[in-house]
Amino acid sequence: MKALELARKVALLSFGDRLRDAAAAVLRDGVCAAVVDGDHVIGLLTESDIVEAVARGVSADAPVVEAVDKPPLLVEGHEPLWRVAEAMMAAGTAVAAVTVGGRFVGVISAADMADAEGQLAEAARFSELVGSFAPPA
């Protein structure tokens, strides 16, 4: 399975959007909000990023760029999930921006990958079970 297959759309925010808007988007979409400049993602804001920014004294009416403290991990959509997981572990992040040819297309989270892995394992067990009931050839 490839990163692009699990990439999900999230709210797109520009530099000037307010932190309050990012918080509302994260609550609505569940994973994060992306701060973009055209087709390029500048940062990903998760719930914990927003909480940390507020704890540092950033106002809810401040532009979202004040809460972006590091560039996002970028992964190409054609990368296999195991390689994405390695990159996420090395970067110490639970979410990455998925790109295709340098253009931002969505995000992938560790939870999404774990869920997909669980579904694949369940499908494999079901296939084995069904195969055990097949009549001999």
TrEMBL record:
Domain (CBS) ranges: 9-55, 71-118
InterPro entries per UniProt: CBS_dom, CBS_dom_sf
Protein name: Signal-transduction protein
Family annotation (SUPFAM superfamilies): CBS-domain pair
